[in-house]
Amino acid sequence: MTVRRALPQRSRSLIGAWCFVDHYGPDDVAVTGGMVLPGHPHTGLQTVSWLFAGELEHRDTSGAHQVVRPGEVNLMTAGSGIAHSEFSTPNTSLLHGAQLWVALPESHRNTERRLDHYAPTPFDVDGARVNVFLGALFGTSSPVPTFTALTGAEVVLPAGATLEIPVPRTHEHGLLCDTGTVTAEAPGGTVTATRGEIAFVPTGADGIRVRAGNVPTRFLVLGGEPFGEQIVMWWNFVGRSHEEIVEFREEWQRQHAHPTDDGRFGRFPAAWTHTLPAPELPNVRMRLRG
């Protein structure tokens, strides 16, 4: 599949607690084979699945089994350890979406594993279509629990339209462009993004003035308080040290080799026929980022 890695980048690792942003598709999965992610682990984060087209079937070691559709959010809390799988469904012909991660703060990174699913109701603001799936925007809030102050919303603007987005001055934001071109104006300056790119707006803005290009524009608003902690991120793990990541990998490899055993990542669902092994560790010491 076509995947665009928008975050982390060399110049920026985090936007609020958002630590990972992949934008993928649209792809004809009848040709490419779609999303095939057998059981694999996570620690210290929440995964956020958001689709523009297609369907995904999710299973995890909290016992959850959920189909995700466009306009619905799956938020999976890994805590100290979870494993999950994601597969595009057989009736999916076009797959298109964003896979997002949120780093858990030190005070909650060992919280209980769980899955939350929510289908927000879209609403109109000055000609724009808005769908708030995390946090609050335009006076509408999501009930999905997060452990830091976050915003996650989809916005669709007609060609050439503008929209004033009120935001907290203490939050930083990234606008992930899906279609068209999005230009963000804030006190820090003006920045433009195209498909798979993020327009970054630092703290200090009471609002963001957004302008669409000459075609209809769809983008995600991803914001939050600056995280204020440093993390080590490798493969699917978020930790606080090189040694911790090594330990997470070793524990996963043990469960991967002995799938009937329980452990840090929970008991594997009966539907799983196999899981993904961890890649080899780098031959350098992993550094803190953030």
Automatic annotation (TrEMBL):
- Domain of life, source organism: Bacteria
Gene3D superfamilies recorded for this chain?
A: Jelly Rolls
**Coiled-coil zones:** none
Outline the extent of the Pirin N-terminal domain: 3-102
Q: Which residues form the Pirin C-terminal domain?
A: 154-255
Q: Member of which family?
A: Belongs to the pirin family.
Tell me what this protein is called. Answer: Pirin family protein
Q: Give the organism's phylogenetic lineage.
A: Bacteria, Bacillati, Actinomycetota, Actinomycetes, Sporichthyales
